[in-house]
Specification:
The protein starts with a helix and ends with a helix. The chain is built from 9 helices and 10 strands. A hairpin with a 5-residue loop joins strand 2 and strand 3. Helix 4 crosses helix 5. By secondary structure, the chain is of the alpha/beta class. The radius of gyration is 17 Å and the shape is globular. Helices cover 30% and strands 20% of the residues. It has one domain: Alpha/Beta hydrolase fold, catalytic domain (Rossmann fold).
Amino acid sequence: MLEDVIKQYLYYPDRLPQHLPPPPWADGSDEIWIETSDDTRIHGLWWPEPSGKPALLFLHGNAQEVYSWSLIREELSPLNLRMLLIDYRGYGKSEGEPGEQGLYLDGAGAVDWLNSAGIDDKDILVFGKSLGGAIACELASNRSFKGLILESTFTSLDSVAQYLFPAVVAFSPEIDSYDSIGKIGSIECPLLVIHGENDDLIPVEEGKALFNMANEPRELFIVKGAGHNDVSAVAGAEYAERIAEWLEGI
C-alpha cells in the first residue's frame, strides 16, 4: 500500500527497552509518562530545573528516541529553561504506531502535561526540529505559546516529497500531509525559523517560505555551511546565543 511505503520513508522509530534507565548525559531529568486523548501512553524526559522558569517543549525529528535526543539539553542549557522531551508513539518506550494525527495528539498531550504541572501556555516555548516542526505548527495554530522555534522543517510533505520519498512515484497529500504552510498564518506567537543553508534533505527555501508566510514578530536564522543534521554543530556557540537573544527579545 502507498501509505505503508510513505511511512517506511517518513518514520524511522528506534525502540528502547522499558527497563532501560536514562543515559548519563540526561543527568537531572525525570522519566515521565503521558496519556494522550486516544489513550496512548507516551514516554518522555523532564528537566524540572531551574525551578520557576518557563518550559521548553522539544519535538524531535523522525529518527532515534529521547535518550539520543537528550544531548540537545546541553546545547540549549544557556537558555536557562526547564525542558520536556517526548517520544512520539512508536518511538522509544512509547506505545502505538506513528502517523500524522497520532503525533499531533502526542504533542497536545505533552502540552496538557505541562499545564497539569502548573505551566501555562504563555510560559511554554515550543521547539520543533524537522518532522517535529510540523507538530509544533499544529500545536501553535491552536494555542497561544510564549514562542515557537522551527528548525530544519518543511512547508508540507507534498512540497518535499521528491527528497523524502524517493521510491514513491505518486505522493498523495491526503496521507500524512503535515501542511504547515497552511497553518503558519494562523500562528500568533513570536517565531524563530532556523535552517541550514546547505540542507540537502529539506531545502533552505522551505524554511524561508514558512518565515515569509508567518506573522510578526518573526526572525530568520540561516546557518551558513550547515546541512540538515548539523545545524547546531556548525553554528557552534552562536546557536544558543542567537536563540537566547531572540528569547530575551520576546
